[in-house]
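quick q for whoever's on today - can somebody do inverse folding on this one?? i tried earlier but teh output was garbage lol. tokens:
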């Protein structure tokens, strides 16, 4: 199946490595993580090259959901129970900071990738899901995330009937390949 992102953004094929080279830092893989790692290393003034076996953003990244969010399913309630509130808060705040970091890179580099801040919803269509969603909402709020539980008429933003939803405010979405293409142009791959 062709990715919607690949249909709308073409990333040029990179030149093959001809012979040996010597650099301070090597990043293996030109997906989202590799490109961001190389970009941030280069911004710190370090010499870096990205090694990719196939093509930039040709693997998992091309099929991403394109959301940048701290909402990763029902994770915070269980994380607090298993890892403790301090560690769960560190995870939550790192993910919240990542949203802002993406936004700052996009603004600083002038990348046209349709970045926008939007709420993210985790919902249930079954009545028994309400309690689990309420627990997740309270856990997220306890960790400093701007979250709320929605029910009844308050779930109007969803295009279908739901018995309840957790809403995380100030999350984001973007066009991941447009973002990667712009950063890849600044790197040696």
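ok took a stab at it. sequence:
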């Amino acid at each position: 199946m062709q990715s919607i992102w690949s249909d709308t953004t073409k990333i040029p094929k990179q030149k093959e490595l001809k012979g040996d080279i010597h650099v301070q830092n090597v990043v293996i893989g030109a997906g989202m993580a590799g490109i961001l790692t190389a970009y941030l290393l280069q911004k710190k003034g370090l010499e870096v090259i990205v090694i990719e076996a196939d093509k930039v953003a040709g693997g998992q990244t091309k099929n991403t959901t394109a959301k940048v969010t701290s909402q990763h399913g029902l994770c915070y309630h269980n994380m607090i129970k298993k890892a403790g509130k301090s560690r769960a808060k560190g995870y939550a705040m790192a993910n919240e900071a990542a949203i802002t970091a993406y936004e700052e890179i996009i603004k600083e580099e002038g990348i046209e990738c349709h970045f926008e801040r939007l709420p993210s919803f985790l919902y249930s269509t079954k009545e028994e899901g309400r309690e689990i969603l309420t627990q997740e909402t309270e856990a997220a709020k306890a960790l400093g995330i701007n979250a709320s539980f929605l029910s009844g008429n308050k779930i109007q933003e969803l295009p279908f009937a739901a018995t309840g939803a957790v809403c995380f405010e100030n999350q984001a979405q973007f066009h991941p390949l447009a973002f990667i293409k712009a950063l890849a142009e600044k790197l040696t791959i």
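fwiw The CA atoms of residues 70 and 95 lie 5 Å apart. also The two ends are 26 Å apart (CA to CA). so keep that in mind when u check it
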